[in-house]
Amino acid sequence: MTASNADRTPGRKAGSGGTALTLLAWLIGIAMFFPIFWVVLTALKTEQTAFSMTPTFIFSPTLESFRSALAQGSGYWHYALNSVITAFGSTLVGLALAIPAAYAMAFFPSRRTDFTLVWMVSTKFIPAVGVLIPVFLVYRSLGLIDTRLGLTMLFTAMNLPIMVWMVYSYFRDIPIDIIEAASIDGAGTAQTMFRVILPLALPGLASTGLLALILAWNESFWSLTMTDYHAATLAVYTASFKSGEGLFWARLSAASVLTIAPIVVLGWFAQRQMVRGLTFGAVK
Amino acid sequence: MSASPTDASPGKRAPTKRLMAPSVLFLLVWMIVPLAMTLYYSFQDYNLMMPDMRGFAGGLSYELLFTDPVFWDALLNTLLLVATCLLVTVVAGLALALLFNRTFVGRGIARTLAISPFFVMPVVTGLIWKYMLLDPVYGLFSWVMRSIGLEPVQWLSSYPLLSVVMMISWEWTPFALLILLTGLQSLPEDQLEAVRLDGANRWQEFRHIVLPHLGQVLYVVIMLESIFFLTSFAEIYATTSGGPGTATTNLPYYIYLSAFFQYDIGLSSAAAIGAVVLANIFAIFLIRFVAGNLNAGSQR
Amino acid sequence: MAIVELKNVAKRYDSMPGKKGAEHANAVEDFNLTTKDGEFVVLVGPSGCGKSTTMRMIAGLEHNTAGEIRINGQDVSSVEPRDRDIAMVFQSYALYPHMSVYHNMAFALELKKTPKEEVKQRVQEAARILDIEHLLDRKPRALSGGQRQRVALGRALVRQPQVFLMDEPLSNLDARLRVGMRAEITRLHRRLGVTTFYVTHDQTEAMTMGQRIVVMRDGRIQQVDTPYNLYERPVNRFVAGFIGTPSMNFLQADHHGDGLGGQGFSCPLGPRLQAALGEGGQRSSCWLGIRPEHLHQVEESSGRGRLEGVIEVIEPLGPVTMVQVRVGDTLVTAQLAAHLDVEIGDTLGLAFDPDQVHLFDIESDQALGLEPDSAASSTQATA
Predict the structure, then answer these.
(1) CA distance C56 to C50
(2) Going by fewer Cβ within 10 Å, which terminus of chain B is more open, N or C?
């Protein structure tokens, strides 16, 4: 578990006043987490208990809301499947595009590759609204509106710059000596790639994929603007609770829990590995 | 060694072009071409309701945009949102990072709890806050205020922008915490020991050693957060829908409304160009940082 | 087995704007050398002198920008590293961290599609020679520095290559291990008889291991010679100062009538030194080089050179004591007997045999009075 990693790092030892600070840290941790905990709790209540002016902490839990959220006709599985397909699809396409590009940039750098890398990262900062209208119009004329393919490609474009950068920085961590040793040992480009570079970069590739997965799963702008039903993801599903149905708090909570649980848990395990990509390698 | 590893294989050039082409093409097709089209549309008189009445409009869309008070509201809201959220998340994130940089019982678990909000889908964040926390009657906040004898507040209608700031800050303080904490932990222990031996107190230690060490990391946090805050959408979409009035309409939401509700392609494109320009003002600093990082790294 | 020839080999870097300073470091100019079959050649010099670059060009990891490199007569300039049939030991060892020791050693053979049985047998054999049989299942990260070093050697050994290249292979080891490995590598070389290039910045390693030593500086060969000749007949002041520890002392000496001298020292001129001094025209001054081990604390001094100065540093090393004496404005190091009855601040007089001194031109730093035969065999080019 990643958490133990941090415990080994020496910080200020808890001294005088340490107990108070420890208590404060725990209190803040719990407070930050409380809304998530509260949703989980509400999801286990009946609608009557959930919707009351005085919150209830002790009650007999029921899975009724989950049952109805997962029931036939609620559509959860349809949206979840779309989320899975678009998130995993965009991650795989992204890795397939990013790995060769990062390989060229990391191991055969030139002015041109440096420029390309900076250019790629800079496209990350074109806000989605900046390309929304043309993408919408072109998608409409190509029949890509409300398709998983169309959405997957948008997620890929959204994540590709970060993925290239992350894979690049992991590749760059491989000592050049090892690549040279492989070439002296008789390995060609492909053999070096598959027998030396990829195995060494595997943890890095995994965290790149994880980050892309999380970002794509939580994406809502493109899902809300480019899909209706066929390709609609869980973001669209939960957004549908924003009016009217929002009165059924237990069901809303159950749906929310089902939407965020996979990614929050994934995030717990990947927190350390994500930091580096998110800071463009400034922190290791 | 200043020689680039290009030399690693005499007699043969790596097929760098072919390896990079797919990524480059992909970004061209999905980002750059549409961006150019947005620019083109912004000079067109084009409304989806009247697709036949299309033609060159010159700067008309920009004129309309700049005379639209809602646009200025949206711009102001965007900047307010970015500035407030930055202030809250960075200050709170730094304080929490310092708090969590101590060794204490269950630190890993407490930290994991604290950063969890970052992984929550923004739409869900919006819903949780709108209903279960901020609801004036049934919300948890109202219950707390009633319990301590205060009048419950109509958060989303009385303090709409503040409510949005709270949601976004809840999501992003963990981000600042996570990154700044990692930055703190990369501080060499001997530097701290040296400054303590020199007789520095905690504040001097923080001011002269910790803060300078965090400089680069803080920079990255601020830049990345601004990029994301500039494009906040889901939290607003799921809660206030830009209201009441235009109180929480930011640029992305304004563009969304003018494109999908007024079908005005010309106007929304012009606004989109505005959003791109704004984002670039922020991005230029980060790009410079990335490029600098690259140069420093290539001399390994 | 192989003969390696380097003819007028050069490596020039395009000076890139914005990357000043590193322009000339690691560059190589006009490198000429032909090895004997099975020879152990050491490239030595200060960092940035081009020794590693030269080796990397032999490996094919870098292009030579001029000249040609031949292995057994074949020009390999455009041959890929993997087709050159060479093995290299890296300073960082460059072991594959994700492979076990066995697979690290077997990797090259597997790539060549060597039959499994043969791979196994060759790895076992190399492991036995290096005494790492018990480590074959471990990953590199579970090994100590010395063990990694052996695995790196083993990986090269298994290949049975035409040429071994070793790039500062011992510099990451602690002092004690280094001495042991030094002898072991020499033993291995004698046993296998493979032509070997060995790069180091440590003159002790060079002297103890090399059959021939190439001394380099600023990308140019200074001298190519046997260890004995490098020590006895250095061709210039750089080689004289680089070979031998502690370094040779240099005193700027004036020529007056029957001797050489300066503030605090004098040296009588015999026929050898007279001739040397007259080489290529009369000189009024020159560099006088004296090795620390040639300075003695003796009373009687007829026919000897003398110097005198105040003691600034005394370093007892056990078998000998190093003393640094201020002579004029030069600090002179002397290697003296273990038990010395002197203290810092004392004035100390030392004597030396004029036959053991070296003279160098004051302008060009070239050695004066080298016997013609050795000069012809030992100098390469010293622009």
Answers:
(1) 10
(2) C
Q: Which domain holds residue B142?
A: 28-272
Among residues A12, A180, A156, the alpha carbon closest in space to that of A94 is found at A156
pLDDT of C301 strictly over 80: no
Res. A284: pLDDT tops 80: no
Distant-in-sequence, close-in-space partners of B156: CB < 8 Å, separation ≥ 6: B130, B134, B163, B239, B240
And the tokens for C148? 């990694």
Per-residue confidence (pLDDT) for residue A93, from 0 to 100 = 96
Q: What is the ipTM of this complex?
A: 0.84
Return the sign of the alpha-carbon dihedral for residues B97, B103, B105, B108: positive
Q: Is the minimum CB–CB distance between A107 and chain B shorter than 8 Å?
A: yes
The domain made up of C238-378 has a fold known as OB fold (Dihydrolipoamide Acetyltransferase, E2P) (2.40.50)
Instruction: Give dist(CA C208, CA C243) in Å, integer.
Output: 12
Report the alpha-carbon distance of residue A148 to residue A153 in Å, rounded.
Answer: 8
Contact status of B44 with chain A (Cβ, < 8 Å): no
Contact state of C82 with A186 under an 8 Å Cβ cutoff = yes
| Number of separate domains in chain B | 1
Angle of CA points B143, B149, B151, to nearest 5°: 70
Instruction: State the CATH number of the domain containing residue B113.
Output: 1.10.3720.10
Tokens of B164: 């949005």
Confidence of residue C375 (pLDDT cuts 50, 70, 90): very low
Compute the distance between CA of residue A172 and CA of residue B300 in angstroms, rounded to an integer: 10
What is the architecture of the domain spanning C4-237? 3-Layer(aba) Sandwich (3.40)
Q: Are C156 and C89 in contact (CB under 8 A)?
A: yes
Look-up: residue for tokens 């969590």?
B100
Interface of A to C at Cβ within 8 Å reads: 175, 177-178, 180-188, 191, 195-196, 199-200
Which residues does chain A have within 8 Å of residue C97's beta carbon, measured at their own beta carbons?
Answer: 178, 200
Answer whether residue B88 is part of any domain.
Answer: yes
Delimit the domains of chain C by residue range. 4-237, 238-378
Q: How far is A146 from chain B (nearest CA, A)?
A: 15
A191-199 own/partner pairs: CB under 8 Å, 24+ apart: A191/C111, A193/A103, A195/C107, A196/C96, A197/A103, A197/A107, A197/A171, A199/C98
Decide if pLDDT at A132 tops 50. Answer: yes
Which residues of chain A lie closer than 8 angstroms to B271, CB-CB? 129
By the 8 A CB rule, do C38 and C1 touch? yes
Report d(CA A222, CA C59) in Å as an integer. 53
| CATH 3.30.530.20 corresponds to the domain A75-242 | no
Query: Which run of H or E residues covers position C368?
Result: strand C367-368
HSE at residue C380, side-chain half, CA atoms within 13 A, is 22
- Tell me the pLDDT band of B295, cut-offs 50, 70 and 90: low
B212 φ/ψ angles, rounded to the nearest 5 degrees = -60, -40
Which three-class secondary structure state does DSSP give residue B55?
strand
Query: What ranges do the domains of chain A cover?
Result: 2-64, 75-242
Give the residue from A220, A197, A209, A199 showing the smallest Cα distance to A270.
A209
Distance of CA B47 to the CA centre of its chain: 31
Query: Could you tell me if residue B252 is inside a domain?
Result: yes
| Whole-number Å distance between alpha carbons of C348 and C340 | 11
Closest chain B residue to C24, measured at CA: B2
Who's near B169: CB < 8 A, 6+ residues apart? B85, B88, B89, B92
Let me know: does A179 contact A141? Beta carbons within 8 Å.
no
* Chain A residue numbers touching C88 (CB-CB < 8 A): 180-181, 184
C190/C208 Cα distance (integer angstroms): 14
Pick C309 or B9 by higher pLDDT: C309
Residue C184 carries which DSSP code? Answer: H
